[in-house]
Amino acid sequence: MVLSSTPKDICILRLSAIGDVCHAVSAVQAIQRHYPEAKITWVVGKIEAMLLQDMPGVEFVIFDKKQGKAAFKQLKETFKGRQFDVLLHMQVALRANLAARCIPAKVKVGFDWHRAKEGHFLFTNKRIAAEKSAHVLEGFRGFAKAIGVPHYEPTWQMPVSDNDKNVSAELLSGLEDVLVISPAASKEERNWLPERYAETAKYAKQKGFNVVITGGPTDMERQLAAEIISYLDFEVLNLVGKTTLKQLVCVLEQAKLVIAPDTGPAHMAVTMGTPVIGLYAHSNPARTGPYLYQDYVVEVYHKNLQAQFKKSAEQLPWGTRVKGKTLMSQINVADVKAMFDRVCEEQNLI
């Protein structure tokens, strides 16, 4: 334990992204259970706050990166006169490291040496225990352990309201056995091909599922959804750009199954206990895959890693990414259908 006494005032620094803050929620709520009297403040990104706001017992301070230097100045002003017992600095990006400088804390806990990138170690004075081949979620669990929280299996209580649940229920009104396809990742190269999403949707329809497509309001996401639908000869519910993040969480909760690439909604579904088939090519699913459903990943990451570096994941720095704009095209429909059948059987979905 890095602290000499029970912490009373804890600051969490994890700005982004959606999937990562979902992982962090399990750590924060474990800390709350172990230290119910502690005050917790979470410095988080503007978009991510839309998902997390109203979490019981947590004060959120929004860091809006679009404000540039003004965001750091605002952070200093917000914490003027305060002193946290401990800062859990859960992000190695340079922007987050600079934000850590603006947060007054006696103890600043960061990642171990192996994971401390972009000068991360310069902004902390304590480190979590090193772990070999750890998932992102397990890294966050290390921060909870560092301040005395016993080992725990991750659970989530996402802060959604009755209104969020009611809106999502209305959106899905009349639909049973829902398959959600959340087709878009943050980078277009991580998206699967629209015609292959469509082939999978057709297969699910034949199995008795109703298909729902979800996503955010960007042009890329709208276009991808439209392309998928253009290959279909039956109606699907297109919710792209039509839900808030909290409403989307509730939609994912009502689904029986989710298919998604390396994207936030995959991890949002995990928080609600909905099985996920993850489609991975660029990043190691053992590090960033849907945590509770890593056995359901369809991936071409490892073969591309071997092709590009002539080494296995065990021989390379953990989290090494592979590059290429067409890697996702190596995931074939037959493998996704086979995984679909396996998940349906193991999870008793049909």
TrEMBL record:
Coiled coil segments of this chain: none
GO terms, molecular function: ADP-heptose-lipopolysaccharide heptosyltransferase activity
Gene Ontology terms: cellular component: cytosol
Pfam families cross-referenced by the UniProt entry: Glyco_transf_9
Signal sequence annotation: none
Domain of life of the native organism: Bacteria
Keywords per UniProt: Glycosyltransferase, Transferase
CDD domains assigned: GT9_LPS_heptosyltransferase
Gene Ontology annotations of biological process type: lipopolysaccharide core region biosynthetic process
Claim: Transferase is one of the keywords in the record: yes
Family in the record: Belongs to the glycosyltransferase 9 family.
The name this protein goes by in its record: ADP-heptose--LPS heptosyltransferase
